């Protein structure tokens, strides 16, 4: 377990969504400490870094929660990174592997905006890496990546010398 105070509000669910997976459920945390969670994620970046960002890109679906709240907090745009069949006018897609299968991400055409990519959790880095690659493929500049939870024992992920910043690090 992490030493971060917000970590105490996570619910650990064994064998979800598949046997052998230890799922970190953020639902209790968001229900009781949503503002504190968004503030903690905001604090992962300096005010200078926030000034250099145009949009927050959220990975479906839990990444939408953080990206949209942070976009509102910092008066930035919000961009959706969607799973197959959920987005009209798809410009590009990227397939990737994750800790319990494979998936694909889709995006609409970008406009050279500078983006931060947000998700709830990083495990192996598959979805975050695919999202970063896809953002650049459609025409955005990736300036940083962040998530609420880092399953640090499962990854050493970086993208173009950028590490994913996280509020809670779990080393289990």
List the helices and strands and how they pair.
Layout: E1 11-14, E2 22-25, H1 27-42, H2 47-51, E3 55-59, H3 62-74, E4 77-81, E5 92-98, E6 101-107, E7 114-122, H4 126-138, E8 141-151, E9 158-159, E10 162-170
Parallel strand pairs: 3-4, 3-7, 7-8, 8-10
Antiparallel strand pairs: 1-2, 5-6, 9-10
Molecular shape: globular
What is the CATH top level name?
A: Alpha Beta
Computed CA radius of gyration, to the nearest angstrom: 15 Å
CATH architecture identity? 3-Layer(aba) Sandwich
Going across the biggest sheet, name each strand in turn. Answer: 4-3-7-8-10-9
On the 0 to 100 scale, the average pLDDT is 94
Residues in helix, %: 25-40%
Pick out the low-confidence regions: none
Terminal Cα separation, in Å?
A: 7 Å
| Number of E-type strands | 10
Tally of distinct domains: 1
Classify the beta-strand content into a percent band. Answer: 35-45%
- Compressed to H and E, one letter per element, the order equals EEHHEHEEEEHEEE
Largest sheet: 6 strands, mixed
State the CATH topology. Answer: Rossmann fold
Structural class from helices and strands? alpha/beta
List the defining traits of the structure above.
six-stranded mixed sheet; 172 residues; alpha/beta; 10 strands
Q: Could you walk me through the main structural features you see in this protein, from its secondary elements to its overall organization?
A:
The chain has one domain (43-170): 3-Layer(aba) Sandwich (Rossmann fold). The protein is globular, with a radius of gyration of 15 Å. With 172 residues, the protein is α/β, with parallel strands linked by helices. The chain is built from four helices and ten strands, in the order ββααβαββββαβββ. The strands form three sheets. Strands 4-3-7-8-10-9 form a six-stranded mixed sheet, sandwiched between helices.
């Amino acid at each position: 377990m992490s030493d971060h105070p917000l970590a105490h509000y996570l619910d650990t669910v064994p064998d979800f969504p598949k046997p052998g997976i230890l799922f970190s459920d953020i639902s209790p945390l968001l229900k009781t400490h949503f503002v504190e969670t968004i503030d903690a994620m905001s604090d992962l970046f300096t005010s200078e870094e926030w000034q250099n960002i145009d949009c927050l890109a959220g990975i479906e679906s839990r990444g939408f929660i953080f990206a949209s709240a942070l976009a509102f907090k910092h008066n930035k745009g919000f961009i959706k990174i969607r799973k197959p069949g959920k987005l009209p006018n798809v410009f590009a897609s990227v397939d990737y592997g994750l800790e319990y299968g494979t998936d694909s991400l889709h995006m609409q055409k970008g406009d050279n905006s500078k983006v931060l990519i947000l998700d709830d959790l990083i495990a192996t880095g598959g979805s975050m890496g695919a999202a970063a690659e896809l953002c650049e493929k459609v025409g955005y500049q990736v300036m940083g990546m962040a998530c609420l939870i880092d399953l640090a024992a499962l990854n050493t992920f970086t993208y173009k010398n950028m590490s994913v910043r996280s509020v809670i690090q779990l080393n289990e």
